[in-house]
Amino acid sequence: MTKPAILVTRAVFPEVLAHLRQYFEVTDNQDDVVWTPAELIAQLQSKQGAFTTGTQRIDAALLAACPGLKICANMTVGFNNFDVAAMTAVGVKATNAPDVLTETTADFGFALLLATARRMAESEHFLRAGLWKNWRYDLLAGSEVHGSTLGILGMGRIGQAIARRGAHGFGMKVIYNNRSRLDAATEATCGASYVSKAELLQQADHLILVLPYSPESHHAIGALELAQMKPTATLINIARGGIVDDAALAVALKNHVIAAAGLDVYEGEPDVRPDLLTVANVVLTPHIASATLPTRRAMAQLAADNLVGFLLHGKALTPLN
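The chain above was modelled as a monomer; its predicted structure follows.
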């Protein structure tokens, strides 16, 4: 019996590839070439499934050129690389990888918050430059985390995990805004209170963004929103590039409209706005919030399991459509 043919679009753990080869004819990309849209279409010819990483755009044009495609399985929780409506219209299944990265990403979000509030990156640059000569009462003094007010915009699984860390680990007052309010029991577990977006911006000492990207959330934080925040506040983005207007943020940081920012995601990444690289009061990391080896393996395995489940048994584990 002929095995279904699939494409693995980027380099992945060898053990995950070995697992896939048990069930499929696999074309891999262990050289990790970043294909153009035309090259991706060429690679997908005669393929029934695609293992994607969140950076390959699956849209109507690609689907029209790849009529044999039946499923695209992202190994990321985000799926703004998928035109889900277009995929649904032609009967192509879309899946992502929720749950398996929740706690790891929440850990990183809180680590980025701490690094930003306590000026850790700025302090390391100061030390490495040989500028540390003596003690001074205000040397690289940052802001408090324990007992402060943590604001969370977007209160899904990751937002809730961050709230629990803030409320129970650091004694923070946790406030949040979300498209829909959580039930009372979940709010109690998270130690969180619902507020309007305006109240969130005005009250948070540390504002962390954990909402999905959509046309509605594009530039949810721009110049107007930054102006509503406390001048002592920090902003943390571990959500998606495009949720923050990076140009407006660079200006706000330079002019000390807010105290500092910590960013793991960017508009147009992997490119980063040059003006963000020139301000001292920002901590920058290269989209690594889920980057522990156990979590990345679990993400890849879930994408593989979605391909096996759908192409062999007609049932995806984590479908989006």
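The two ends are 29 Å apart (CA to CA).
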